[in-house]
Specification:
heterodimer, A: alpha/beta, 12 helices, 42% helix, globular, B: 23 helices
C-alpha cells in the first residue's frame, strides 16, 4: 500500500515535471540572490533591476540577500543553484579576488555572465583638512616620506580598494605597501575615519564619497579611470596628472550558474537590457551618483576575465594572494 | 515657519496617517514576537515602501521601528524572552515583576518611558542634529575601541551573580564572534571548510537560541515546576507612572540623553544604549542591591534610553548619510531610492522633507501610548495560553526568524546550537546577557583594536594620544578601579584589627 502511494506520488511529480518543461520559460518566480546586505548599493541595484525584470518577464522576481564571508556565501549560492534560469544573482567584483586570496575555488568561470550593469572607477580622496589640493602634491609627499607614513583605508584586507591602491603605487614605481592599508568595514567607515583624522587617503569610488565631498569635508584629487567621470567633471584622471596608466573600477553584473540553456540565456539578457535602459534604472543610478556601464554576454565576460588577470598580478606582488 | 506648515501638510493627510497607524500595528506585532527585531521589521517593510511617496515611506519605517523597540519589552516582561535585543538589558527586572504578579508595573514603566525617551530623542534630533553629528564624526578607531571596552566592562559588572561568571559568559560570546571571515585580516577562522560558517555566527539566530530556545527547552524539561504568571490586574498601567516620573526624574532624563548620544554614534544603536544606561542606573542608584529583583529604576532609565537611541541614530544618517545603526543603514538606502540624498544639502534643498520626518517621529512616539496600552491588554491573552501550546508556536516563530535573516536553513542550525548552549549556561548559573554583548561587540573590539595598532605602528600610547580617546580611556579604567578601591577601603579596617 505504501509502495502504491509512493509510486502514485512519483508519477504525479513526473507528469508535473513534463508539463513544466513543455511550457515556455519563465513560468514560475525567479530568485535573484544579492551577496551583500540589505540597504547597501548592491542591494539597491539588485532590487531595482529585479523589479524591472519582473515587469519584462511577467513573473515575480524575489530578491534574496545571502550575506557573509566577504561575499563568498552569496556567490556560492548563485553558482551552486540549478542552471535553469530560475536562480540568478548580482555578481560583484569580489569574484575576481576571493579565489586569489584562497577563500574559495569559485571563479567567474563557474557563472554564465549575463550583463554588466554598472561600474564605478576608484578615486584618490583625502580629508579637506589635509591641505593637499592635487594628486601630484600628494604623490610627491608619499614618495619623499618613509614607507608607512601615510595610511589608507576604505575596504577590508585584500578588498577592491586595497588592490586598487596597491596597483596605483606599483604603477608609480613604489612598493605596493608603501602606503599602509588599514582594513575597514567599507568605504563609508573608511571615509568617516579619514575625516576624524584616523587615516590619510581613501582610494574608494568617488560615488561613495559623494555626500562627504558635497559637505566640503573630503577632497577628490583624482579618478582611477581612463576618462573623467560625468558626475565629477572637475576631478582629473591619473594619466592627466601623475601620468600613471593604472585604472580600476568596481562593477556589478547579473550572472547565473554556468550551463544555462541558450534560449533562457537570450531571454534573460534581453530582459536585463530592457531593465537597464528603463527610466527608473537610469534615473536611480544618476541620482545616487553610480556610474552606468553596459556590456552583455561575451563582452561582459571579457571585462571580468581581464580584471581577474590584472588583480591576480597585483595581489601576488602585494602579498595579498594565497600561496 | 512656512517650511513647518509645508511639512505638516505632507504628513497630516488621511493616507499618511493610515500608513502610520498600520505600520504601528505591524511594528507592535513584530517587536512582540521574540526573535523578530526592529531591524527585521524595517527589512520586511522596504519592498512595501517602493510603492509609496517619500513621506509615507519614511513614516512607515520610523513608526514601525519605534513601536517594535517598545513591544520588545512585552515578551521580555511576560515570558523572559526579549522581543528585540534592545530589551535584553533589563529583562531580569521586568520578569521579576511579572513573577511578583505586577507585570503592569514593568510594562507601564517601559511604555511611558519609551515614549518619553523617544520624544526626548526627537527633540534633540530636531534642535541639535548638526552639532551632535559633528562630535560623533570626531570618533576614530581609538575612541571606538574604548567605547567598546566600556560596553563590555558594563556587561560584566551589571551581570547578576559574580563578575567571574559574567566573564565566562563574555568569553563564550567573544569566542563565537571570532568565527568566520569578517575579521581585519580577512582570514577564515574556525570555519572548518564550511562556506556558511565563513559568514560567521549570525547574531540574530544566536540571540534567538540563547534566549528563546533555551527557555523552550527548560519548559519541557521542567514541566512539573512550571510557574504560570498570574493574570495582570491591568489597572494603573499609567497611574503608577506619574509616581515613577516624580521618583526618578533624573534617571529618565539621563537615560534619554545617554540613549540619544549613543544612538548618534555610528554603529552603536538601541541595544548598546540600553545596556550602558542600565549599568549607569545601577551604578548611581541609592539601592543598587534591588536591581535584578524587580526594581523599576533601571527599567525607567534603560527603557527611555533605547527609544531615545532610535531617534538619535537618525542624526548622523540625515546630516551626513552615515548610519547610526543597522536600521538607519537600511533607511539610507530607501531615502536614496526616494530621491532624498541624505547629507547637509538636504537641509537646504528639501527642508520640508526633514521637518516632515521630525513630525512623523513625534507622532510615532505619541501614538505609542494608546497603541501600546492596547498591545499590553492584548498580551495578557498570551498568559492564558497553556505553555505546551505556546512553546511550540514560539519555537516555530524562532525558526521563521532564524531562517528569514539570511534565507538559509543554516540560521536554524545556529539557533539550535545556541539554544543548547544557553540552556547549559543557565543550568550552571552563568548569565546569558554578557555572552550576547560579547557576540555583538567582539567584531567591533577586534576591528578597532587592530586598525588602531596598524595606524599607530604598534604603539599602545596612541590609545591615549587623542583627547577624546584619552578621556574615554581614563574613564574606562576608572570604572574598573572604583569597585576595587571600594573593596580595599572596606576591607582595610578589619584587616588592621586582625593583625597579630
Amino acid at each position: 500500500m505504501q509502495f502504491v502511494k509512493t509510486a502514485a506520488a512519483l508519477g504525479g511529480l513526473l507528469i508535473l515535471a513534463g508539463t513544466v518543461s513543455a511550457q515556455e520559460y519563465p513560468e514560475r518566480p525567479i530568485q535573484l540572490i544579492v551577496p551583500w546586505g540589505a540597504g547597501g548599493g548592491t542591494d539597491a541595484v539588485g532590487r531595482l533591476l529585479g523589479a524591472e525584470i519582473q515587469r519584462e518577464l511577467g513573473v515575480p522576481v524575489n530578491v534574496v540577500n545571502r550575506t557573509g564571508g566577504s561575499g563568498v556565501v552569496g556567490h556560492s549560492a548563485i553558482a551552486n543553484a540549478d542552471p535553469d534560469g530560475y536562480t540568478i544573482g548580482i555578481m560583484t567584483i569580489e569574484i575576481d579576488m576571493m579565489h586569489w586570496q584562497g577563500l574559495t575555488d569559485l571563479t567567474y568561470e563557474d557563472f554564465d555572465i549575463l550583463a554588466i550593469v554598472n561600474a564605478d572607477p576608484g578615486g584618490v580622496m583625502v580629508s579637506a583638512e589635509s591641505g593637499f589640493d592635487s594628486v601630484e602634491a600628494l604623490l610627491e609627499s608619499i614618495k619623499s616620506e618613509p614607507a608607512g607614513t601615510y595610511k589608507a583605508s576604505g575596504t577590508g584586507q585584500g578588498g577592491i580598494w586595497h588592490v586598487g591602491l596597491a596597483g596605483w603605487l606599483l604603477s608609480e614605481d613604489l612598493a605596493p605597501d608603501h602606503v599602509t592599508f588599514v582594513p575597514s568595514q567599507g568605504a563609508a567607515p573608511g571615509l568617516t575615519d579619514m575625516v576624524a583624522g584616523g587615516v590619510d587617503i581613501v582610494p574608494s569610488s568617488l560615488a561613495e564619497g559623494r555626500s562627504m565631498i558635497d559637505a566640503n569635508r573630503v577632497v577628490a584629487l583624482a579618478t582611477m579611470s581612463a576618462e573623467r567621470q560625468d558626475a565629477f567633471p572637475d576631478v582629473p584622471t591619473l594619466s592627466e596628472t601623475t601620468g600613471s596608466d593604472w585604472t580600476v573600477a568596481v562593477w556589478r553584473s547579473v550572472a547565473a550558474p554556468d550551463g544555462l540553456p541558450d534560449d533562457v540565456k537570450t531571454k534573460l539578457m534581453d530582459a536585463i537590457e530592457v531593465a537597464y535602459n528603463s527610466d527608473a534604472y537610469q534615473t536611480f543610478m544618476a541620482d545616487r551618483g553610480f556610474g552606468l556601464r553596459w556590456a552583455k554576454g561575451d563582452d561582459a565576460t571579457e571585462i571580468v576575465a581581464n580584471d581577474d588577470a590584472a588583480f591576480g598580478e597585483v595581489m601576488k606582488q602585494a602579498g595579498l594572494a594565497a600561496e | 515657519m512656512p517650511t513647518v506648515i509645508d511639512a505638516a501638510q505632507l504628513v497630516f493627510q488621511p493616507y499618511v496617517l493610515l500608513v502610520i497607524f498600520c505600520s504601528a500595528a505591524f511594528g507592535m506585532f513584530v517587536g512582540a514576537i521574540p526573535g523578530l527585531t526592529a531591524t527585521m521589521a524595517t527589512a520586511l517593510l522596504v519592498p512595501v515602501t517602493f510603492f509609496m511617496d517619500p513621506v509615507p515611506a519614511i513614516a512607515t519605517i520610523v513608526t514601525a521601528t519605534a513601536m517594535a523597540i517598545f513591544a520588545g519589552d512585552i515578551p521580555g516582561t511576560m515570558l523572559r524572552m526579549p522581543g528585540t535585543p534592545a530589551s535584553a538589558a533589563y529583562v531580569q527586572d521586568a520578569y521579576a515583576l511579572t513573577k511578583q504578579g505586577r507585570p503592569e508595573a514593568a510594562l507601564g514603566a517601559s511604555l511611558v518611558f519609551s515614549s518619553i525617551g523617544g520624544i526626548f530623542g526627537t527633540l534633540v534630533l530636531i534642535t541639535a542634529s548638526p552639532v551632535l553629528a559633528e562630535i560623533a564624526l570626531k570618533f576614530s578607531s581609538f575612541e571606538y575601541f574604548w567605547l567598546v571596552v566600556l560596553g563590555l566592562s558594563c556587561a560584566v559588572f551589571i551581570s547578576p551573580g559574580s563578575p567571574a561568571r559574567g566573564l565566562v559568559a563574555l568569553f563564550i560570546g567573544l569566542f563565537a564572534a571570532t568565527i568566520g571571515l569578517e575579521n581585519p585580516a580577512g582570514a577564515p577562522r574556525y570555519t572548518m571548510g564550511s562556506v556558511e560558517l565563513m559568514g560567521g555566527v549570525q547574531f540574530i539566530p544566536a540571540m534567538i537560541g540563547l534566549f528563546a530556545v533555551s527557555e523552550v527547552i527548560r519548559t519541557f524539561i521542567k514541566r512539573g515546576a512550571e510557574v504560570r504568571p498570574p493574570a495582570t490586574p491591568g489597572k494603573g498601567i499609567f497611574r503608577q507612572q506619574a509616581k515613577n516620573l516624580v521618583t526618578y526624574p533624573v534617571q529618565a532624563l539621563r537615560g534619554s540623553a545617554m540613549g540619544t548620544a549613543i544612538g548618534a554614534l555610528p554603529g552603536a544603536g538601541a541595544d548598546i544604549a540600553a545596556w550602558i544606561s542600565f549599568a549607569i542606573s545601577k551604578k548611581f542608584s541609592k539601592t543598587p542591591e534591588k536591581f535584578g529583583t524587580g526594581h523599576v529604576e533601571g527599567l525607567v532609565e534603560a527603557g527611555a534610553s533605547n527609544n531615545a537611541a532610535m531617534s538619535g541614530a537618525w542624526i548622523p544618517a540625515l546630516v551626513f548619510g552615515i548610519p547610526g545603526d543597522s536600521i538607519t543603514a537600511i533607511v539610507i538606502g530607501v531615502l536614496y531610492i526616494k530621491g532624498i540624498n541624505p547629507g547637509p544639502m538636504v537641509f537646504i534643498t528639501q527642508p520640508q522633507m526633514i521637518y516632515a520626518v521630525f513630525i512623523v517621529f513625534l507622532l510615532a512616539n505619541l501614538i505609542m501610548l494608546p497603541l501600546g496600552w492596547l498591545a499590553i491588554k492584548g498580551a495578557r491573552q498570551v498568559l492564558s495560553i497553556p505553555q505546551k501550546v505556546l512553546m511550540p508556536v514560539i519555537l516555530m516563530f524562532c525558526m521563521v526568524g532564524s531562517f528569514a535573516i539570511n534565507n538559509s536553513a543554516f540560521g536554524i542550525g545556529i539557533m539550535l546550537v545556541f539554544g543548547v548552549i544557553g540552556f547549559l549556561m543557565e543550568e550552571n548559573d552563568i548569565p546569558i546577557a554578557p555572552a550576547i554583548l560579547g557576540l555583538v561587540l567582539g567584531p567591533m573590539l577586534e576591528q578597532n583594536f587592530v586598525t588602531s595598532m596598524i595606524k599607530s605602528d604598534g604603539s599602545f600610547i596612541a590609545f591615549f594620544e587623542r583627547p577624546i580617546a584619552a578621556g574615554l580611556g581614563l574613564f574606562t579604567i576608572a570604572v574598573w578601579m572604583i569597585p576595587l578601591l571600594l573593596l580595599l577601603m572596606r576591607r582595610r579596617p578589619p584587616a588592621g584589627v586582625s593583625e597579630p
